[in-house]
Structures are given as C-alpha cells and as structure tokens.
C-alpha cells in the first residue's frame, strides 16, 4: 500500500515537473520572439531618428555655407 502511494506521488511529481519544463520552454520561446520584435522596432526608431538628425544638420550647415559664400562674394566685390 505504501509503495503504491509513493509511486503515485512520484508519478504526479514527475508529470508536474515535465509540465513546468514544457511551460518554461514555451515561455522562453515566446519571450525570445517578443524581445526580438522589440529590438527590431527600437533599432528602426533609432535609425529613423539618427537619419532625421543627419538631415537637419546637413540643412543647417548648407545654410551656413550659403551665408558664408554670400558674405565672401560681397566682400570680394568690395575689394575689387
């Protein structure tokens, strides 16, 4: 009688352990997918922001270069 109860207990314990291992495996797989999607989304957002900053800097410096060229042409005209 005691041996049968012990075997039943061990069987239930083994099943619970197996189910928990499967659940953990599924959780890890799901978490990995979500983490990968999150990483891709963040990388795209960072890349878009970096490109936006680069475009803004380019426009600012082109404006400055244009202003300096105009100033230079004006001063050259005064000298000659």
Your description of this structure?
It comes from Dreissena polymorpha (Zebra mussel). Essential for the assembly of the distal half of centrioles, required for centriole elongation. Acts as a negative regulator of centriole elongation. Its main location: cytoplasm. This protein is mostly helical. It has a domain at 31-80. Helices cover 98% and strands 0% of the residues. It has one helix at 2-79.
User: Spans with pLDDT under 50 lasting ≥5 residues?
Assistant: none
Going by helix content, strand content and strand pairing, the class is: mainly alpha
Percent of residues in beta strands: under 5%
Principal-axis shape equals rod-shaped
- Estimate the helix proportion, in percent: over 70%
Total number of β-strand segments? 0
* Overall average pLDDT: 95
How widely separated are the two ends? 116 Å
Contiguous helical run count: 1
Rg result: 34 Å
The major β-sheet equals: none
- Could you state the order of secondary-structure elements as H and E? H
